[in-house]
Specification:
With about 350 residues, the chain is α+β, with helices and mostly antiparallel strands. A six-stranded mixed sheet has the order 1-5-6-4-2-3, with helices on one face. β5 and β6 form a beta hairpin.
Amino acid sequence: MTTNGGFEPVFCTIVPPHVLDRLAQAEDPALAGPARRTLQRDAYERTQRRLTTVVGAAAVAPLAAAESGKPHRTVHDARHGTKLPGAAVRREGEEPGKDATVNRAYAGLGATFELFLRAFSRDSIDGAGLPLVATVHYDRDYNNAFWNGDQMVFGDGDGEIFLDFTLPIDVIGHELAHGVTQYTANLDYFGQSGALNESVSDVFGSLIKQYTLGQTAGEADWLIGAGLLAPRVTGKALRSMKEPGTAYDDDVLGKDPQPSTMDDYVRTGRDNGGVHINSGIPNHAFYLAATTLGGHSWERAGQVWYDVLTGGELTQDAQFTDFATLTVKAARARFGEGEELRAVSKAWERVGVRTL
């Protein structure tokens, strides 16, 4: 049940199940209801991916005369339904309309395409000009965004806990980066390999945000999903790469459970073995490497991570030690025995992940 070089069905959401589980238990039905419906919808979509026989194919066929090195975007409107992809409302080259959500999705697809092309010489998600497809206004009060193996999908949020999921550009970048992983290392979505899958998406989501804002590593906030939480929530984002475990601490949402080092590694059977939780460890390693080196994160640390993701040596079931070891190897191959190698090695040491 695999195609495109053995890709397995993919369904990756930005909001972790443990957050929605906590919300679903809220006493206030205005909070619990949307969370429960979102969990049910996510479970349905996840099952659909497992039943799909063609994985990784574009939801819109490639344009016959498409120009390489140019984005080919289509944004659809589900109109609060769940049929995908929905009605096409903005195609490549068309002027912005009145719907700000559509415009943000279109711009986010473009920003993601540009970073991968300019910084990594990668032509779209698959490296071969894959059309970028997004659907907005998915379902009602839907508290998530996801990559389903074919396209991006954005909910509008419930307005109580989550706002429109197109607001943070790193959310768009994060989910599309799952597509890059799908077409390259195709990391298993469980345990440490799953946490690496999530971390890689956070890394490139953050790089897309930094690239768009023209920020250096020292200027970046290193938050994932800043601007997504509604004003009533005591928190600043979904995750922090700088300080994992500090993104939120809220009466309803609970406290951010991410560890920053292996000392606090979480062993759990939930969330595919804690993929959204333990991703804090490799996230923090990237933050440490990038900020130690300074400058633009995509120019050195980002290159090392991309080399590992696309180099062909990263196995689908890779553990943290495997990934860390390959980053050291990649840093040496690209930059020699200089500060890049030292920064990468030290970053993994500081988070408690050994290299071989």
